[in-house]
Amino acid sequence: MLEKVSSAENRRFPRARQSQDFHEYLNDYRAGHPDDVLVIDEQVSSDQDITAVLWALAEQGKSPLLVFPKVAGLTMGVATNIFGSRVRAARMLGATPQTLHEAYQFYANQLVPTELVSSAPILDVVERQHIDLSSLPMIRHFETDRAPYITNGIIVAEHPDTGAGNLSYHRAMLHSPTELATSLHSRGHLWRLLAIAKERKTPLPVAMVIGAHPLFMLAATARVPLGVDEREVAGGLFGEPLRIVKTPRYGIGVPACAEIVLEGVIDPTAEVQEGPFGEFTGYSSNRSTNNLLRVEIIMRRKNAMLIDVAGGNSAEHLNLGRIPRESEMVEKLKERFPSVTAVHYPSSGTHFHAYVALKQVRPGEARQVMLGLLGWDPYLKTVIAVDHDVDVSQDASVLWALATHFQPHRDILTVDGLPGSALDPSSSGIGTTSRMGLDATRGPDFDSVRAEISPASIARAAGILGRAGKL
Ligand SMILES: Cc1cc2nc3c(=O)[nH]c(=O)nc-3n(C[C@H](O)[C@H](O)[C@H](O)COP(=O)(O)O)c2cc1C
After folding, report:
1. Domain ranges, residue 362
2. pTM
């Protein structure tokens, strides 16, 4: 339920007042969690080095916030992987990974109207003439990408009748010194706003925000109906009004502390080539609506940084896209099925897998819960249900439950012919998918005793390893 409140006083998820400035966020975070920020002082290439470093760290199970002060060919430093860790994402909301969904729902559902300010860092430099987008900081993330891309471009568009602001991410590559090629392939609300513009035979005024505070980034993936101003969701997440300035030409409200903002129009009649691009599935996708964004004004702060999102099936890309969806699904599921104790969307399954833990009281309950989730979440293909004592945040624990509790002839349910993600390389040509529930709960007839180590021995082991310097 969305509700309007003027301030977000709360005690449930305590946190310090959030600055809306990314630079302050980074400084504070570094000071508070120095082990969770990795600064690479060596100069790196803008051609895949950043993605390669991120991937190498992820293979070691590490996901620090990464800062690259020197990137060859770029006029500014790069920060990336902010959302690569759910611990970090949860901290922004005064939560832990276990309470992240609840905290997200709590803050995001409090709509806080924006506050217009007259002076702001984003007004430091406003270029209206001689626009040259080749000076924009762009990174090639994957060898298979068509070109260097802006991956963290959040397009702000206002409804022509109500002024309600829509936020959505759209990758962009250089098309000409004044134009970007972009894609609205998720055919979300921006696509609908563009359809209105097309009907009215006008271009659609937009502002692309390249880099802002992480809570603004999170608000841009909020799942709210068209007409709800997502800048007010950002206000909810901040616990105070999002401070905005109006763009010079079309008066679009953009964050006062953004790093770079491009103001211009999407031309509903133009089509330009764009993609392939590394998508959340881990595959390179050619799917694009091939839109043209004509840039008329560049705004940036003096000390701007490029805040990048690595894309592909990086944890950051998956977390950003998923946290709001997961949170909504978990709230719905727990409300309807009180037996559900935990839900987890593993990054190994991109957007297609979910694990549910429950305290089953009636036979068949796990199946009903899985059907609920498979029906509600448009992306899911596979849900695995386990008992409440299985840690759903660990792939290995869920696979163990599957190995030992599950009988294929008895515990599988499939549904075919449902709409699927157009980016799923395995789905049929007509865009449908099948969905599957795997019931890996023990069930009423299960008869086995788990081999366990006594708590006293576990405590002794901690002491032994501690003294050996291994803990
Ligand atoms: C990092 C990131 C990049 C994304 N890139 C694109 C993109 O290039 N094109 C697109 O259509 N959707 C992209 N998406 C998905 C949309 O931003 C997302 O579906 C959004 O919620 C749509 O919002 P809307 O329905 O309010 O327009 C991306 C999402 C994330 C998190």
Report:
1. 337-439
2. 0.95
